[in-house]
Description:
Elements: E1 5-11, H1 19-34, E2 37-43, H2 44-53, H3 62-72, E3 76-82, H4 90-97, E4 108-115, H5 123-134, E5 138-139, E6 144-147, E7 151-152, E8 155-156, H6 159-172, H7 179-190
Parallel strand pairs: 1-2, 1-3, 3-4, 4-5, 4-6
Antiparallel strand pairs: 7-8
Amino acid sequence: MSKKSKLVAVSGGLQRPSRTLALVEAIVARIADAVPVDLHIVALSEIAADVGVALDRRNVSAEVEVHLRAIEGADALIVASPVFRASFTGLFKHLFDLVHQDALVDVPVLLAATGGSERHALVLEHQLRPLFSFFEARTLPIGIYASTHDFTNYEVTSAALRERIALAAQRAAPWLHPRREALSQAAALAI
């Protein structure tokens, strides 16, 4: 039996209900159909107050620390943020400011975002991809952008969006395997 990948999905939505969280859940469901995963969801809406008051990693709450460790120990990430003024939310960025800068080296990251219209779609390329390039993560080539009209009652209802999610999940699947253990073993052998 194959080992499950540690998949961490981060939803940067600050409200409940949230189209961003609905998008994340749709992506996760499609990936979980293809690859066995051990899932950890970080819903920023649930920890926003604790993240907002954390000046640095030394003074985060125990709950935020659990989420940060999950992010840092992930075999793969799905990250999604709503778009505000052409970028991700400030708290989404602050959450990743608390992640150790070397923790995501070579970790595959599937990028996603939600916004009011298609004019925000470039947030994937101009905001999210550079953020995760800083971490030296492996941002996957296909990102997912969804606008308000792709949802009905906070559920993905657009056929085109469902197709994009399916394609992204299919292309992400080969990257979703327990990489950290394999990398650690390879490093130990090299010593």
